[in-house]
Amino acid sequence: MPRPSGTPVTEHAYIAHLSKDKKLQKIISGPLAARVKRKNFAVRLMQAIMNQQLSTKVADVIYARFLALYSHKEPTPQQVMDTPPEVLRSIGLSNAKVSYCA
Length: 102
Description:
Elements: H1 11-18, H2 22-29, H3 41-51, H4 56-68, H5 77-82, H6 85-90, H7 95-101
């Protein structure tokens, strides 16, 4: 039911509402585990771009091909920029994704 305009909603009301969701309830009720920092943020961003709008299986195949271009090691951003766009296209990336990554 919508609340009347101008009626303040307390933080408690938000938490009570969000706690109805089982996954959010775990987050709200306890401390979160520390996130592990990743060294190569640029490659993580490229991987996220590669994964967009693809099935998980296809995304995994394309990322494996990407790593194969660099001897199965995470490349530096400069190595990716030095890779010809045609090579990145050959592993299954669209023109748009190549332009975002390179």
